């Protein structure tokens, strides 16, 4: 790779404070695909250095921190997942990775896969066998017997069994763990508001992850399960339909991320009566409390990160615009939306090497139009995407 300069009329660095928006500036990318310098274009121009002048706004590559590469986004993604041949699932996962790049997403977290496909995608992207965003995968999710999505993952009871499942995932190469703290919308017969894994069981998973420097994401919708997950020490709360004051306080004081996955609900609502009745019923009960919870989290300044839950009904990969537009509708300013998809996404994954534009970070860069940046349009498409110093779009 050659050293290259990328200039733009406006740069959004996602760094809090005065340095967040720069004008007539440029990013100098070194031969290793890292940011060597950032500042006024005129100051960074050098003889013999190639310069690409980009339109619109240059910002960090986006992070979608809640995806499922193995799910089909059909009316019945869980049923498909159980019936589908792993070869077909793999092909879909490869296409999904490409869709993320089209949308400007340069890092994803996969929070529940099958057949080790999500885990292998981590390496296939790392060694350039497949084009896609960097993948951080949880392997098989960990649920209680009869719990939400238990048919897709480890179905376990008791601390020892949770520990064994966690250790197996970590042995298989998971870069984080995913546990099921409450019921969910897509699983027939479970209530989203009800707690599932106990606090002790969740703590066992957290301990196993911490021993090897990994994190834990908790599917957590009802208040009891969310509170217990936070006490158990999980790193991120996924969905957060009913956030108690206790949960908001713990989230805010600890800086742990909330991943609302509003896109999942929006996309299911759009399917309307085409969905199974049991899902339609649950959607009616969760939509309003969910939005209220996210508004309260926003008002208190919690760290909110973008995750689409791609792979759920009507919610294909590359859908991060739906999540951004939904946050904007709930009162997040454009800057807050883009921060949720950059700096906060990196915080959710505990990654210090991306999510902001400053010296030493990976050169994960995208460029979008001013109209898309300021309006946070659902249908935005970047006109430039670079991952680790390599231009992909
Ligand atoms: Zn999910």
Query: How large is the radius of gyration?
Result: 20 Å
Instruction: Give the names of the bound compounds.
Output: zinc ion
Mean pLDDT: 97
Given the C-alpha coordinates, what overall shape results? Answer: globular
CATH architectural type of the largest domain: Alpha-Beta Barrel
CATH homology superfamily of the largest domain? Metal-dependent hydrolases
Beginning-to-end CA distance, first to last residue: 16 Å
Helix content: 25-40%
Describe the structure in your own words.
The chain has helices at 41-44, 77-83, 86-102, 117-126, 159-171, 199-211, 223-232, 245-254, 262-271, 277-299, 320-329, 334-340, 343-348, 370-375, and strands spanning 4-12, 21-29, 35-40, 50-53, 57-60, 62-67, 105-110, 134-137, 142-143, 154-155, 176-180, 215-220, 236-239, 257-259, 303-304, 365-368, 384-387, 390-391. It starts with a strand and ends with a strand. It is built from 14 helices and 18 strands. 55% of the residues are buried. It folds into 2 domains: 4-60 and 356-391, Urease, subunit C, domain 1; 62-348, TIM Barrel, CATH 3.20.20.140. The strands form 4 sheets. Strands 1, 2, 3, 4, 5, 16, 17 and 18 form an 8-stranded mixed β-sheet that branches. A 5-stranded parallel β-sheet has the order 11-12-13-14-15. A hairpin with a 5-residue loop joins strand 2 and strand 3. The protein is α/β, with parallel strands linked by helices and 393 residues long. Helix 5 runs parallel beside helix 6, helix 9 packs antiparallel against helix 10 and helix 11 crosses helix 12 (334-340). It binds zinc ion.
